[in-house]
Predict the structure.
Amino acid sequence: MKNLKYGIAIFPSKEIQDVANSYRKRYDPNYKNIPPHITLKERFKVNTDEIDQLAKELNKIAADMEPFEIEIHKVSSFSPVTNTVYLKVAPNESLTYLNEKMHQGIFPSEQQYAFVPHITISQDLSEDEHSDVYGSMKMLTFDLKDTVDRFQLLYQLEDGTWTVYETFKFGQ
Amino acid sequence: MKNLKYGIAIFPSKEIQDVANSYRKRYDPNYKNIPPHITLKERFKVNTDEIDQLAKELNKIAADMEPFEIEIHKVSSFSPVTNTVYLKVAPNESLTYLNEKMHQGIFPSEQQYAFVPHITISQDLSEDEHSDVYGSMKMLTFDLKDTVDRFQLLYQLEDGTWTVYETFKFGQ
């Protein structure tokens, strides 16, 4: 019996991941710990004995979903709360629904921040670096679209990197 | 329609991954491109339109499997073929069976090397570095065991990192 740190995320299309990584490789020290992603549930601790019960519940959540579209048009920042710059995922009921389901029932309910669907491209920069980076990116526009048909349960290794434990495909 | 580079691998337990990463972080330039893994099928190109057919076939292969044990007791090297040093996975019929199934039927059959189940911990070192590293590691003994109950289909991003596309659990 051991507690591992788990998280739940969506990996968008390779195209969107390649765009995100072109920025992450310069501005995000977390760059190679996990592929570009939309977090649905932040890191939470669960006993390895209990994770398969959570996985069953995630299976049910995924089974009730249908694939849905996401769109990305611009960059935004969580400043002044944190210096995180991100690709803003346009408001999306399906993402909000998934986030809510994953904080109810048998799931730990804590959530540090209100849910804002995003793909982080820069974080942990100094105030000045953040101003520079965000200043140069906030004028950018994108026309990125993807169909989401699955999410992933991951766990974190001792060195901070993440490994996928299981994929949950919608409608199965 | 786009060709992506796919691969198929097993991620062993967090314990084994942590051991592997303690070496990889020093000796493997591929360290953060993918978590520690046992490759079942080396990188192959498939059209994104065709991958879900392959995934269906992988589902069938996984459905017929039962969880099996793997053991790791020592370090070995592929030298002089390549300077890759690895955690040697003890000979295992289930791994061999999976490797064979993934090179038959609708799967590309090419395989650069004979199948030797392993977890790479050092690669792309100079001849001298390899001698030093392997010399210091070949006396080590391990007593690592794990139950394998799934494998993963991954694709490679432009920067060389890998993203999991789907997990296949045995007997489902």
